[in-house]
Amino acid sequence: MDKNEQPAVMIVDDEEMVITSIRAFLRLETEYAVHGFTSPEDAARQLETNPVDVIVTDYLMPKMNGIQLLGKAKNLQPEAARVLLTGHADKQSAIQAINEIGLYQYLEKPWDNAQLLLVIQGAIERTRLLRTLRDKISELDAAHSNLKDVQTRLLRAFL
Amino acid sequence: MNDQPEPAVKPSRQDLLEQLESAHQRLAEAHKMASIGRLSAGIVHEINTPIGSIFSNNEVILRSLEVLKKLLAESCAASVAPSQEAMEIIETMATLAAVDKIACERISGVIRSLKTFSRVDDRDIRKACLEGIIRNTLKLTGTIFRRRIAVETHFEELPEIECYPGLLNQVFANLLVNAGQAIEGEGKITVTTRRENDFVHVSIADTGKGIKPEDRGRIFARGFTTKPIGEGTGLGLAITREIVEDTHGGSIDFESEPGMGTTFHVRLPITQTRKSSPAS
Q1: What is the sign, positive or negative, of the torsion defined by CA atoms of B222, B226, B229, B232?
Q2: N or C: which end of chain A has fewer CB within 10 A?
Q3: Closest chain B residue to A14 measured between Cα atoms?
Q4: Is the pTM of this model over 0.80?
Q5: Does residue A50 belong to any structural domain of this protein?
Q6: What is the tens place of the pLDDT at every residue in A74-90?
């Protein structure tokens, strides 16, 4: 993903009203592309092909819970920040699973828009930095193997 | 002056019975409160989602109004029709207002069910719609497991039955919560009602782990539970049996297959021949 590209936010909640509310808020306050999904399975399929900067998901959803979705997201797009936005009832089980999937942030419903925005902004920045870092590491690796090549050739030429 | 202590008045059998009855009643009330406590986590979750939406929408609508005011002032000053952006903001506000209405209905539905479930003034025997009682209880218990358990209902048209509705709420809440807890992961609960001569028959079937053969003789005993600490008081089925059999003159039994599920059968008379006060 080009770092100048419009940031992409994925919102997953089986309650349509949550997606509608957050989408309206982000459209008003930001220039982000917002992708909403009421089905975590559809969201997971989308992640296979479309890169996003941050995934904000509910925990308790039918067929696949938020932790399972974020686990898939971690494999498919390791740099994308993972945020859990959940109700009180599932707090304990969610906290238990947080370490497994490396959560960027845990938020509770009812959420505060200002806090949600700060978290999403921070998450996007982190994702972009991680992607830049990954690119730089690849460049360094490439340069390193180039140098190794040159060194081998030099040694062959002179020894 | 007589130093002899006053002989203690030995309580009569009637007094002891009344004390026992009152203790039973307090225990049943305490258990009902514990049930509400257990349901509360689900209820909080159920309410927090629409509240989150309402808060967010309120903020967005207020901010949108500011932007809209500015855009309309600009259109007026230039004597042109409102811009596309202004029209889109109006559209968004209308959508959010519709979401708010749904959210408020959701919250008020949960509160209504909770009020019906927890009412303590429902002590008198009266004619009540059994389907209504079950549906109300399903709304509350569904808040705990609605995302992992499908609920199927088959309600036959039934006459109103003479009962203590407040107590029957508790019966069905106990059986439904038990059914939900017996299911690990995803599953189904099927609630069926039908008339059987002068009785109504309610069956609650789950696709859970079933009751072990060695536990079957003890499940209606006070203090027996297979649930972890904090999940069960060991009183639920004992109180359920008392309400169904002793208070209403009905019957309760079950069939269970380990690994396949359990079905509880509750039979309640349509008319009460005994018009006594509730035993618990």
Answers
A1: negative
A2: C
A3: B147
A4: no
A5: yes
A6: 999 999 999 999 876 55
